[in-house]
Amino acid sequence: MKPSRKVWIIIGIGIFAIVLGILYVFYFREVGEREQLSDRLAVAEVILPGLTADREELEDRLAQAQSSLEANKKQFPEVVESIEYGEDFFKIAYGENLYSMASGVGVELTRLTAAQPTSTTAGGVTYSVSSFMIVVDGSIDNILKFIDAIGTGIDYELSWNFQLPWSVDVKSVNIDMGGEKASATISLDIYGYKG
Prior knowledge:
195 residues, 5-stranded antiparallel beta sheet, 7 strands, rod-shaped
């Protein structure tokens, strides 16, 4: 039995209604996504100028930080030299073991102050100049040994010899002999070769 024309029309209308329903769903889904994208774009356009300004500020801060880093890198080796000089002073005062005065010259190093290192050029050679102020306590004899050992790196009585890679210019020595121990304030400059 052949379906009648009415049945075909109803089937056609049903298929058309289904296709129309599917198109309707897809259309409104696309419209919803487009509205969401429009809203996001509007928010992004509002935020973009602020982000651009933040980026420029961060780039400026980065440039300043890099400049500061370069300046500090130039000073760092000199600071390290000052620390190494201080270690040498402690070795002369106390020997290799800071807790055993017998291996050093027998003074107690009570204060060590370093100034910011500078540079000087003599005969085409550049030297770093580090100024120190040192306070030591001990007997007069041991204080004089300490001052001599700073200049030479040698203590003849204790038979040790430091190979000090620098030379010292002792600017002043003030010795206070009050009490059981003497105290000396020593001001000096250390000249180290800057290769």
